[in-house]
Design brief:
2 domains; about 10% strand; elongated; 5 helices; mainly alpha; 2 strands; two-stranded antiparallel sheet
């Protein structure tokens, strides 16, 4: 945990009088600091759950502050190159949660999965 995360946790503890439980409120300044910290850490490749643990908040709370609470577990990924040589050579991936990825060949699908893991 770096110094910014430690300062956030200390400020949150002072603001909430040491209470660590459900329903704790965070000031706008603390939320803004957490979002800046999370943006910086995500840009370096850190997972949201790790960032939330460093800040001492739940991943769902952090996702809400980041503005994407309806999509927990997702992160932005950029494919450098995607090409489809032939429709017959594309793969379809359906996750147990029902998400479907199609239109990528096996190599590109593998690259996508590596980027997400």
């Amino acid at each position: 945990m770096d110094a910014k995360a430690r300062r956030f946790r200390e400020a949150a503890r002072r603001e909430n009088r040491g209470q660590i439980r459900r329903g704790v409120r965070y000031s706008r300044e603390l939320r803004r600091a957490a979002v800046e910290y999370a943006d910086r850490r995500e840009a370096l490749g850190a997972r949201r759950a790790v960032i939330a643990r460093e800040l001492g908040v739940s991943p769902l709370t952090l996702s809400r502050w980041l503005g994407d609470e309806g999509r927990p577990g997702f992160r932005k990924v950029t494919l450098r190159e995607a090409r489809v040589e032939s429709p017959a050579r594309t793969a379809v991936l359906t996750t147990p949660a029902g998400f479907r990825v199609e239109g990528l060949d096996v190599a590109d699908l593998a690259a996508l999965l590596r980027a997400l893991l």
